[in-house]
Structure formats: C-alpha cells, structure tokens
Design goal:
This protein has 315 residues and is an alpha+beta fold. Helix content is 34%, strand content 17%. The protein contains 10 helices and 11 strands. The strands form 3 sheets. A 6-stranded mixed β-sheet has the order 1-2-3-4-6-5, covered by helices on one side. Strands 7-9-10 form a 3-stranded antiparallel β-sheet. A hairpin with a 4-residue loop joins strand 3 (73-80) and strand 4. Helix 2 (23-32) packs across helix 3 (99-113) and helix 8 (247-263) packs antiparallel against helix 10 (294-303).
C-alpha cells in the first residue's frame, strides 16, 4: 500500500487493522478548509513533557503512559496539571512522521471538535509540540474495548443467549445514534468496528478514532484517493478505483459490525489482504447461526448489500 515488497507487506498486515493510503485527498480536504498544508504554520506551540523527564514549570501536560497505537498515531494517558484532570494525548508515531500524517491529525482534530455528541469524545486542544508535530488533546475514555467484551461474551452469544444478544444490540444502537448525528453534520466515519468502540463502566458508549472521518460534499458524497479503512469490514465502494462514498458506506460498516456480533467474525475473511479484497468484490452471502433472530439476520443482510441503493438509505 505504501511501497516496498507487496508480499512482505501483505504478510505483516491483518484484515482487521485499519489501513491508510490517501496522500492526495488529505491535501484536497485541507484546501477545502482554506488552510496551508503544513500544520506548523497553523497551530500554536503547547508545552508537553514526559513523566520521566525533569519537571518543566511551563509544561501543563504530562504524558504518563501509552494506551493505544494505530497506523499513524499513538494515544497516551496524560495529566493536565492546571485542572488536575486526566486527559488523552494523541501524537504521531515516530515512524509515521510526514506532511500527510501531520495534516491528517490536524484534520481529525478539526472534524471531531465540531461534533458535539455524547458518543464522541470531545477535543480539548490542538497544537504543536517542541518537535513541531501536532498534539491532539481530548477526553480520556475509560472502559473496555467492545471487541474485547464480545470476545469475553462469545460463549453466551454463540449459545443464543437472548439477554446477551440484546445487551450488545443496545451498544450497536448507541453507535447508530452517534453515526446518525455525524451524518446530520455532513461527516462519515469510515472505520466503524467493535475495535473502535469503548464501553464504560456506567453504560457509556463511545465511538473512537475519527482519523479517517471525511466531510461530505454538497452532493452528500466523498471520493477518496485510494483505499482507507479496515478490509474485514469494508464496503465494496471503498475498494473500487474512483469509488464514491456516502452515508450508506457507514450503513454497510454498521452492518459488518452487526455481522460480527451475530457470527463472531466480520463479513470479509481471508488469509491475505488480497484475498479479503477479492471476497469483498464478490459480495459473498452471509450465513448465521441457527439461533439468530430472523429480524436481526434480515437487517444485517440488507445493511451489507453490495449495491448501495439496496441498503438502508439512512442509519
């Protein structure tokens, strides 16, 4: 996807990992916002230090430990000293430092900051650190990743426990409500999956990682430059050259998530990325365990129809 030996890369990538290959569209989206491409000319410097470093009286943000790592960024738990609160800090991975990655992180912050919904972690601040790279400061979300909860409950789900099924369908409904709101704001997520959902101890449900989110044009569509997303869940239009995305792309991703809830696996499987892409293009039919409620199976099949016009048209 980004140079090098394709066979080697294919062996290192998993279909459930988020993949990014969108060098041109980042610049296009920033042009749409009327901005310079280099975030260092846009943002004010903020002081941030590591817990292991000597205390700097000017540093209000102290990074404590890493809590997550994606294709481009690293998310760490931190403390904001002036307010005495825990926060999350997202920075670029050292091996992903590029103009495109810097611009993508700034764009993520701007899109997420204007989405005001209980299911979306609020952004507190965006700036640049001493190294000149963007630093995204947002609410620290505590809880369990939904994919891990599904794994823990797998035995009960696969035994057809109605109570467990309903518990997880309720989580999916909360994510649907969040996505319905983002669509009203003209934003699609493009990477909906249980691994990007956090479930709190008090019933909170958050949809995380808005790094692939895109603003829809006046016609309600978005045309990416290359594939960006998670292959195991991806809609066919996401892998097509010149494919056009819209709200129905997120509908497909929600259907893929429902598929994992019901079957234990996302809809697209394979031993390599190429095999997964081939299965996406074929539009293989879904099969469900015998205990699956027929209404849920019907909803899932309609949501992941390869033809967007045959899916549900709204979340």
């Amino acid at each position: 996807l980004s140079g090098g030996d394709p066979k080697t890369q294919d062996a290192l990538l998993l279909p459930t990992q988020t993949l990014r290959h969108e060098p041109a569209s980042v610049a296009d989206m920033l042009d749409h916002l009327g901005e310079t491409h280099d975030p260092r000319t846009l943002l004010r410097q903020i002081e941030i230090t590591d817990q292991a470093s000597p205390t700097d009286s000017q540093s209000d943000l102290v990074v404590l430990h890493e809590i997550g790592r994606g294709g481009v960024g690293v998310v760490s738990a931190a403390e904001q000293l002036s307010l005495g609160r825990a926060i999350a800090v997202k920075q670029l991975r050292s091996d992903r430092d590029s103009a495109s990655s810097r611009s993508q992180l700034v764009l993520e912050a701007k899109i997420q900051a204007r989405l005001n919904h209980p299911g979306i972690p609020p952004v507190h601040l965006i700036g640049v650190g001493k190294d000149g790279n963007p630093v995204l400061v947002m609410q620290l979300i505590r809880g369990e990743v939904w994919s891990e909860v599904l794994h823990q409950d797998a035995r009960q789900l696969h035994a057809g426990s109605e109570a467990k099924i309903l518990d997880h369908v309720e989580i999916l409904i909360r994510i649907c409500e969040t996505i319905a709101y983002s669509h009203e704001q003209g934003v699609i997520h493009r990477d909906i999956k249980p691994g990007n959902v956090m479930v709190g101890r008090h019933g909170e449900v958050y949809l995380l990682d808005w790094g692939l989110a895109a603003e829809l044009g006046s016609d309600g569509t978005f045309t990416p430059q290359g594939f960006t997303g998670t292959p195991a869940y991806a809609a066919p239009e996401m892998i097509q050259r010149g494919g056009v995305l819209d709200a129905r792309t997120d509908v497909y991703l929600l259907g893929s998530t429902l598929c994992e809830l019901l079957t234990g696996e996302p809809p697209h499987r394979g031993d390599s990325i190429n095999e997964v892409f081939l299965n996406i293009s074929k539009g293989l039919p879904l099969s469900f365990p015998h205990w699956t409620p027929s209404d849920l199976a019907s909803i899932c099949r309609k949501a992941v129809d390869p033809e967007p016009s045959l899916r549900y048209q709204t979340v």
